[in-house]
Amino acid sequence: MTTRNVVFPPGRHALYERHRYSPAIHSNGFLFVSGQVGSLEDGSPQQGLKEQVRLAFENLNSILAAAGCSFDDVVDVTVFMVDPASTFEEIWSSVVSEHWGNAPYPTVTAVGVTWLSGFDFEIKVIAKLPQESL
């Protein structure tokens, strides 16, 4: 088995150890980022939907930065939302647009779910690594 090239952001290591997953992995010029939620340092959910989504993006951005990337390098996005029928517009129009970057936008798949371990929103991405990060 090959060794995984794992990227860790500052802090939150206990969360990854407790749940046994890597925050992100470099592979073949891409960065595959695990789903990020609006978790506080102790792993608990940030209160309030907009605040939780903002924190999920902050957590995502810290992983991207640790790999030498930014949101501009993201090529594919998957978001998971609890109760998207009542939350999609609130999340998409007011919070996501603050972080999305400029066109052209990455591909996006939005999935409605019934459970996210106490969270209401999760974002997972694939980013193209800049040449100097390879």
From TrEMBL:
Pfam families: Ribonuc_L-PSP. Transmembrane segments: none annotated. One of its GO terms (molecular function) is deaminase activity. It comes from the Bacteria. One of its GO terms (cellular component) is cytosol. InterPro entries: RutC-like_sf (IPR035959), YjgF/YER057c/UK114 (IPR006175), YjgH-like (IPR038743). This is Endoribonuclease L-PSP. It comes from Advenella kashmirensis W13003.
